[in-house]
Design brief:
mainly alpha; about 45% helix; single chain
Length: about 500
């Protein structure tokens, strides 16, 4: 069997993690079986279409390297790939069902349908259409159409065998005719409903397997009945377990923090997001490392290993995986260079209004910052390095902040000695050795060692807490550290002279 799978989103919102999981697993299954991954846009709900959503979906898939073999952008032998451009195909297949008695025109008004719904609710029953128009004669139908009455078309649900074996959930038996009214398959505006269009399209596009969300599981027997009505063989089905928020609520397209493009904009990388999605619901024979390549995901994917129970998102894991991805990228010269350029751009944009010494954007320095920040998981994304907690990496403290250093009583000759101790160290110095020298300095000057460290921290960063002073000196470098301390000395000396004049 030639494997052909499709990812068929509706452009009623932007791609979020739930939709991405569906796209990814379709892609993995196709790649593993040397088949075709197809992107089809189900845009028949014209009122809910979001402008730009289709372009955004294609843009995200490209960035994630989930490239469809056939799509609106790439074309293919089974197009068009917009459902709105396939209306003639739906109409001709509707005619087939009308002729063989498996569909009919329905003239019930919205008012009547609303009365049926309210009456069912009043009787504490599940609302469903009463199939009234199924019994209209051909002559009655022709007369109503001649009169120009508004109408849709419905599919005849019959109590026939519609059970199937799902590749994830196993045997599934549900008789839609016993619980539902005949469903609309063609709306008054001439557009098909999802139930009808996806059956027609999957057949005409030779789709072999349908991998979609668990919410469509209950509708599948209805789809199988449509296949039978046409005399077609249905594809094999695999319904992916429901993804829930951490609090157990359902995901929504309106949750901006779960939009894939929103995650990109926050600094999460494509491989990070792909690996995060694979932690939701299984699909692999063995436990994967937290970060693996797309090729490895293809190799280890197993559709039958998917969990059938719903799963919850743990966004903290996304942070962990992105930290690993930064470390991985920093190991390879080409990807490291991309990180360096990215961080330079972030810093320049974030600190646009401030004057930045271009030396701090040298490739050597930015590389050192990235390796320092990623080595101990100090950041989740590169954007963190442009936050206020790390602003000292790019901008020295201002003279205004030096006022707080007066009370430490480290100035004049003492400060010269302190600068000399640090200046005599080499880049890549031994932190423990420097600590010994600083403790000796504190003892000689009769100053508590923690006071010396607080003075250094304030001089270098104007922070009260954060990385150790040794780490700060290490990442800033000896030259920059001495430069900042020298500016502090100049300021304190100047104030001392002014104070003596005022005395």
């Amino acid at each position: 069997m030639t494997v052909r799978v499709r990812f068929a989103p509706s452009p009623t919102g932007f791609l979020h993690l739930g939709g991405l999981r569906t796209a990814l697993y379709n892609f993995l299954f196709a790649q593993q079986n040397k088949g075709s991954f197809i992107l089809r846009i189900e845009d028949t709900d014209r009122k809910r279409i979001v402008p730009g959503a289709v372009e955004a979906i294609e843009r995200v898939l490209t960035k994630l390297q989930l490239i469809p073999k056939e799509s609106p952008g790439n074309g293919g032998d089974y197009g068009p790939y917009f459902q709105s451009q396939r209306l003639d195909l739906y109409r001709s297949n509707l005619d087939t069902l009308l002729k063989n008695g498996n569909a009919y025109a329905c003239f019930c008004s919205p008012t009547r349908l609303d009365l049926i719904r309210k009456d069912a609710i009043r009787r504490r029953e599940v609302p469903k259409y009463d199939n009234k128009c199924r019994n209209l004669s051909r002559k009655q139908v022709e007369e109503k159409i001649r009169q120009g009455l508004s109408h849709c078309y419905r599919f005849v649900l019959r109590s026939e065998e519609s059970n199937f074996r799902d590749l994830v959930y196993g045997p599934y038996d549900y008789n839609p005719a016993a619980h539902e009214g005949d469903p609309v398959i063609m709306k008054e505006d001439g557009y098909p409903t999802y139930h009808f269009a996806n059956v027609v399209d999957d057949h005409l596009m030779d789709i072999s397997h349908v991998l979609r969300g668990e919410e469509w599981l209950i509708s599948t027997p209805k789809h199988i009945l449509m296949y039978k009505a046409f005399g077609w063989t249905p594809p094999r089905y695999a319904h992916l377990p429901l993804i829930l928020n951490k609090d157990g609520s359902k995901l929504s397209k309106r949750q901006d923090d779960l939009r894939v493009e929103s995650l990109f904009s926050k600094g999460f990388y494509p491989l990070t997001i792909l690996n995060f999605v694979t932690k939701i619901g299984g699909g692999f024979d063995e436990k994967l490392d937290d970060l693996v390549s797309l090729d490895e995901l293809v190799d280890k994917f197993n559709l039958t290993s998917l969990n059938s129970s719903s799963c919850r998102l743990d966004m903290n894991r996304l942070d962990l995986i992105n930290q690993l991805e930064i470390k991985r990228r920093a190991k390879y010269p080409l990807e490291e260079k991309m990180l360096i350029d990215e961080l330079k751009d972030i810093v320049l944009k974030r600190l646009l209004d401030n004057k930045i010494d271009k030396r701090v954007l040298s490739e050597e320095y930015v590389r050192r910052v990235i390796h320092w920040a990623s080595s101990e998981s100090r950041i989740v994304t590169l954007k963190d390095l442009a936050s206020s907690d790390f602003s000292y990496l790019w901008e020295p403290p201002t003279e205004t902040s030096f006022n707080s250093l007066h009370g430490f009583n480290i100035k004049g000759r003492s400060l010269d000695d302190l600068i000399s101790i640090i200046g005599s160290s080499n880049e890549g110095f031994d932190r423990s050795e420097l600590t010994k020298q600083l403790k000796a300095f504190a003892k000689k000057e009769n100053v508590l060692f923690p006071v010396v460290m607080k003075f250094l921290r304030g001089s270098l960063s104007n922070l009260k807490e954060g990385p150790s002073v040794g780490e700060m000196i290490d990442v800033l470098g000896i030259k920059e550290t001495v430069s900042r301390l020298s500016k502090v000395k100049k300021y304190l000396d100047s104030n001392a002279i002014q104070d003596s004049r005022n005395a």
